[in-house]
Every structure is written in C-alpha cells, then in structure tokens.
From TrEMBL:
Top-rank EC class of the record's enzyme: lyase
Places the protein is found: Cytoplasm
Biased composition (Low complexity): 45-54
Protein name: phosphoenolpyruvate carboxykinase (ATP)
Any GO BP: gluconeogenesis
InterPro entries for this protein: PEP_carboxykinase_ATP (IPR001272), PEP_carboxykinase_C (IPR013035), PEP_carboxykinase_N (IPR008210), PEPCK_ATP_CS (IPR015994)
EC number of this enzyme: 4.1.1.49
PROSITE patterns according to UniProt: PEPCK_ATP
Length: 688
C-alpha cells in the first residue's frame, strides 16, 4: 500500500500479514487512514489501555454537538436576538422627579408595547383590545403565553374574536418582510437586482373621489370646504362604522404588521406614526417611505400621534352613508386616525400622511410643501415646485448638489426638512441613461409596484405597461448617493416654480416678485398634451393649487401667505421656469432643450441671474433676463421665437384667459389685513 514520506500527513496501513490486517483495518475491512497526529494519539491511547474502540473509527472529524434536541431548536440558534445599545429606562415615580430613571425589565417593556398596540386595535364597541403577541404564528407550535392587557371593563359577552390571539409582526426588517411576502403574498417576486416586485391589486393609483375627511368642530373652520376643494366631507358616525369594519377585519387575521415610525426630519417637529396593515408589501413600503426609528427610539415610542388602519383587502359597505364605491379612504383629524378599505395601492398611505402634515404643520406656523429640495456645497437651498412632466425630479436631482428630498418638505423657523425617509419614483420607461440614481436605487430593500419582468431572469422591463403605466419604486433616501443625511437644511434662497407650457408663450425663465410668486404658486400651472387616440393635439391647461391640490387641507391662500412671509423674512427669490415649448405651441414649436434648462437652473443657484438686466413682458408682466451664459438669447423672449406673431398674441391671450378663469374660485377669499393681500395677488395675474 502507498504511504506518505517522512513529512507526509497520512498513510494507508500495510496489509501484508493477517496481524497487520487486523491492526490496520478500518470498518468493513477497509484500510484505515492515519495521520501522524492521530497515529501518535492512538499509540498513546494503547499505552493507557484505551485503544479498544478507537480502532473502529475510520476518521474522526467530529465537533462539539449542537445545543439542540430538535430541528426547530437548531433553527432557533441560527438567529440571534437584536438588543438596543442603550439602557432601557422608565420614568421616575411621581413626586420623585429628581431621582434617576429606574431600569425597566425587558418583559415589562414588551408588555407596555403590546398594550399600546392592543389599544390601537381596540374596538370601540367592545371597549377592549384584542389579545396580541409578537411573532409569526407559523413559527409557534404551542399557544403563546403573553396575553393582552384590558384597558376597560368589557361591556358585552365574550365573542369568538376575543378568544384568539392576533400575532403582531412589529417593525420587521426588509429581509424579514421579503420572507413574508414571498411565502404568503401571491404576485411577490425578487427581481434580478434584488428588489421586491409586488402587485397592488385592482387599484394601481390613488382614488381621490373615494377619499373622505370628517367634518366636525375640529375641522369646520380650519379646512377648505366647497367648490374646488379636494376635501369631501363625511360625518363622525360614518367614520366610526368604517373604522370598526377595518379593525374587525384586522383582528380576524392570524397576524398583522405594525410599523412605528416618524415623519419630519426636524426632531423638534417630528410626528410619531403607527401603521397597522395586513400585507408585508405595505409594511415594507412604509418602512421605506417614513423615517425609520432606531432601537433606542422604539424603546420609548409610546402612544403614536397618528394611526393608519390599512384594511385595503377588505371592501367598505357600499350601503354606508357617503360611500360611492367599495373603496373608502377616511381621515379623522380629531381622532388622528386614517382608515383604508377597498384599495391595496400603497400610495394612499403616503399621500394620506402628507395630507395630515398639511393640516398639523400650519397650525404650528410651519409651511408644508409639495416640492423637491436640494442644497449646494455652500449651503444654498432651493425648492422645486412642479406637476407631473415638468422635470421636478430631474432638475432637483443634481450630482453637484445634495438632495434633501424629492417630494414633501416643511419650512419652519429652523429651516427646511424632509417629511419622508424615502423616495417614491415613477418607473415607466426608466433607464440607467435617463435617471441613473433612481435606476441604481432599485436593489435589495426597494419595493417595485406593478412592474413586468422576465419570468426566467426576473429582469424588469420598465417600458412594459401591461399592468399599468403608473409603475413605481419605493426606496430609502439613503439609496441616493448624494442624499443629505439627516435630511435638513438652512432657509431656502430660491423658490423655483416649474411649468411645462405646451402653449409655448411663457419665457424659459422669469423673476417673480412676492405677489407674482403667490399668484403662480396658487395657480399651480402646467399644460399637458392630449393623447392622439382621440385626435386632439391642442395643449390642455392643468391647474393644481399649490402644485398639489389633491393633498392640501386648508385654503391655498393660507399656504401662499405663509410662503410669501417666509420668503420675505429670509430673503428668498421666486422664479418661474418653463420647461415646455418654444417657437410655437406643441405641434409647431419645439421642446426647450434640457441642457438649456439646466444652465438656467445653474445660473439661479450661482446668483448670476440676480445681477442680470431684465425686461417686462405683456399680459403676464414677467421679468425676463436679457442674457444667460450658455443659453441662446433669442429664446429668452418667447415672442422672438414665433414666426407667426399674430398666432403668438392670440395664444398668449388665450393662456391669460385660462389663468383668469382658474383663479376665480380664489378671488373672493380675503387674506391679509382688510383683504389687501388678496388684491395684490390678483393684480399679479394677467392684465389685458
């Protein structure tokens, strides 16, 4: 038999004699592999008379046995428990305020947390919350030992729902939510880049006609009601009917997802929110879109300031008063609650909370804004307002500047702050060339809504509209390389209002005074080109108050007045930038080049346009700079780019008339002392 050399590590025992066969054989007569070390150990063992059993061992690669008696116990050893990095504390006892905080046991902290969640899920009819316990019910082999704590004496007899446990999956990580979605939610897949692709069901967009706001003593005077308002009223009783329906549905499930998170990066004005949902998709979406709490912040999270009950898989009762379909999104600002029934579209939660901030923040003297926001390396902040198609996302995402946020912000005495912890980007026709930051952000942890992908490679086809054109990606803001964390900045220097004017009569850029800024902010203008399927090719004007009429709660003039006050106080300049057509309307003119628009924006950032010479236009009275470096001077004056001057004047008058007609709904709303501010705003509009 072969053997290793003097320094070899192993050898086969010789088999030339029967005695040698007996001594050197392993199990079943096979030659035994002997290392030098093991041979020495066997020799030593033989000398101690302990070699008897060892001869039958072919090769010993055994290790210390695992500390488990079953496979379930073995799997439990695979994951270690997360623990906060700071001590857990409880408030000092009353009357002993100077004493140090006393340590709170982990069991007590868990009990208080579950008590808070049980209170959130309490039925107001039964006056008691459900029995709740943390963890996935699929992983529990026996009845849980942790029960609920009753907050009130039950007023009715025991029901079936009160006998069951509701398992709470609390603030799960993206990896855990992936597992839940893939295992339990049909239509959930991991794409080739690691994102979670999901379906939002029958609804692939918001349902503004099904959104209701409770009209009561709290909101009667503060909110905008009536013509032009996005706030459709409902009464308190109807809200409670829908709330009970949502809570009953959630309590009937074996498990619910609970997210405790924050809104507003300004720690002085942040809001605690709790989202209770039935889908891992919804929990991961809100994990990305809200500000994620640290383990230390969760220790003392306490009672939330606002709660969402997302029972979107369950319809509302269409026979309930105020209901017009099986979908209902209900907001009760007095109770600080939101109920979702009949739609699984996750954007309802994001925009619902934005509406809440549009109510709560102005009450504190803080301006809430539907805008993008970035900051230069010297600390100069710019706000970007614009409707869909105006280039707000493209222009606010600048590799030479820090991104504070892409959609929702607050402007307080401390400066600007992002409301959200993530971005919700459109994905239709997305490419690495057009939007590299968004494209590269679609990776593990990102939620992809309603996209189409290859069934084998899982590569997403962003041009495919088979499910919907409104495909979306939700990802944490830190996925953007130049995001500023924390997402706060100083007071803005520039307020940029973007309009895609398909009529081709607004200048590429114009400087606005305060009254003009308020007028165009309230108007929220852009122009869309109608689809060719019905043969209409003429531009259609679109107005959305404050560039986000669907989300504002108070009258637009209130937000406009706050904007003007802050701009005046902090020396900000207003600008109107047209990213639309030049040299004619859509069909005859051409779209202003993006490279020219970027040079205009850069000139605003640098302060170059503050030193420029200006001339005033007719009708709209806009101030136009005479020159901008890198931009052809002839396109700065729209009239110079039209070959048919008569057509230009007619189109200009037409657009001015559309502005006038749109503003009629705001003209009678008096703001300022004796309504003088209203008069100034009206005077800043088109003059014929």
């Amino acid at each position: 038999m072969a053997s290793g050399g003097a320094n070899g590590e192993f050898s086969f025992s010789s088999s030339t004699t029967a005695a040698a066969n007996r001594a050197g054989a392993g199990r079943n007569g096979l030659p035994k592999i002997q290392t030098q070390d093991s041979a020495k150990k066997q020799s030593d063992a033989a000398a101690r008379g302990a070699a008897a059993g060892a001869e039958d061992l072919c090769y010993d690669d055994s290790a210390t046995p695992v500390k488990a008696q079953t496979l379930d116990e073995l799997h439990s050893l695979q994951k270690k428990r997360s623990t906060p990095s700071t001590p857990i504390t409880a408030p000092a006892a009353a009357g002993n305020q100077g004493a140090f905080f006393t340590a709170m046991s982990e069991e007590e902290r868990q009990r208080q947390q579950l008590q808070s969640i049980s209170a959130s899920l309490a039925s107001l009819t039964r006056e008691t919350g459900p029995k709740v316990v943390k963890g996935d019910p699929a992983r529990r082999s026996s009845a849980p030992k942790v029960g609920h704590v009753e907050h009130y004496a039950p007023s009715i007899s025991v029901t079936d729902s009160s006998l069951k446990f509701t398992h709470v999956l609390y603030n799960l990580s993206p990896a855990e939510l992936y597992e839940q979605a893939i295992k339990y939610e049909k239509g959930s897949f991991i794409t080739s880049t690691g994102a979670l692709a999901t379906l939002s069901g029958a609804k692939t967009g918001r349902s503004p006609r099904d959104k209701r706001v409770v009209r009561d003593d709290t909101t009667e005077d503060d909110l905008w009601w009536g013509k032009g308002s996005p706030n459709i009223e409902m009464d308190e009783h109807t809200f409670m009917v829908n709330r009970e329906r949502a809570v009953d549905y959630l309590n009937s499930l074996d498990k619910v997802f609970v997210n405790d998170q924050f809104l507003n990066w300004d720690p002085e004005h942040r809001i605690k929110v709790r989202i209770v949902s039935a889908r891992a998709y919804h929990s991961l979406f809100m994990h990305n879109m809200c500000i994620r709490a640290t383990p230390e912040e969760l220790e003392n999270f306490g009672t939330p300031d606002f709660t969402i009950y997302n029972a979107g898989q369950f319809p509302c009762n269409r026979y309930t008063h105020y209901m017009t379909s099986s979908t209902s999104i209900d907001l009760n600002l007095g109770r600080r609650e939101m109920v979702i029934l009949g739609t699984q579209y996750a954007g309802e939660m994001k925009k619902g909370l934005f509406g809440v901030m549009h109510y709560l923040m102005p009450l504190r003297g803080i301006l809430s804004l539907h805008s993008g926001c970035n900051m230069g390396k010297d600390g100069d902040v710019a706000l970007f307002f614009g409707l869909s198609g105006t280039g707000k996302t493209t222009l606010s995402t600048d590799h030479n500047r820090y991104l504070i946020g892409d959609d929702e912000h607050c402007w307080s005495d401390n400066g600007v702050s992002n409301i959200e912890g993530g971005c919700y980007a459109k994905c239709i026709d997305l490419s690495a060339e057009k939007e590299p930051d968004i494209f590269n952000a679609i990776k593990f942890g990102t939620v992809l809504e309603n996209v189409v992908f290859d069934e084998h490679t899982r590569q997403v086809d962003y041009s495919d509209k088979s499910v919907t054109e409104n495909t979306r990606a939700a990802y944490p803001i830190e996925y953007i390389p130049n995001a500023k964390l924390p997402c706060v900045g100083p007071h803005p220097k520039n307020v940029i209002l973007l309009a895609c004017d398909a009529f081709g009569v607004l200048p590429p850029v114009s400087r606005l005074n305060l009254a003009q800024t308020m007028y165009h902010f309230i108007s929220g203008y852009t122009a869309l080109v109608a689809g060719t399927e019905d043969g209409i090719k003429e531009p259609q004007a679109t107005f959305s108050a404050c560039f986000g009429a669907a989300f504002i709660m108070m009258h637009p003039t209130r937000y406009a007045a706050m904007l003007a006050e802050k701009m005046q106080k902090h020396g900000a300049t207003g600008w109107l930038v047209n990213t639309g057509w030049s040299g004619g309307s859509y069909g005859s003119g051409s779209r202003i080049k993006l490279s020219y628009t970027r040079k205009i924006i850069n000139a605003i950032h640098s302060g170059e346009l503050l030193e420029a010479n200006y001339t005033k236009t007719e009708i709209f009275g806009l101030e136009i700079p005479s020159s901008i470096e890198g931009v052809p001077s002839e396109i700065l004056q729209p009239a110079n780019t039209w070959s048919d001057k008569k057509a230009y004047n007619e189109t200009l008058l037409k657009l001015g008339g559309l502005f006038k007609k749109n503003f009629e709904v705001f003209a009678n709303h008096k703001i300022g002392k004796d309504g003088k501010l209203t008069e100034q705003i009206l005077a800043a509009g088109p003059v014929f």
